[in-house]
Predict the 3D structure of the following.
Amino acid sequence: MHAELVAQGHECRENTVARLMRDAGIAAKTARKYRPTRDSNHPLPVAANVLDRPFDPPARNESWVAHMTDIPTRERATAGIFEYIETFDNRVRRHSTRGDVSPADFDAAHPG
């Protein structure tokens, strides 16, 4: 509202406009939040189990898994992907759970 008033040539303070709007009961209309449903009791078809649920894949990168995540913006999706790569696929960063060696060094010392 303040930006619109200034654009029309009115001199006003942002806090004054906010106070007057609050006193008059005027508020911005907020967008409805997206609420994903997790209801499994639906008549929709269920995707086929293509992987046949192999919980012990024969080698690395043979199977991929995913889960439903609500990512509202592209920026947050990019940040999430970057965080995943840095956390799980950074071949240089040292991991305390692996004796403070990098994943590449750990894999070289423990083949298979």
Notes: The longest helix spans residues 74-88. The chain has a mean pLDDT of 77. Residues 7 and 49 are 57 Å apart (CA to CA).
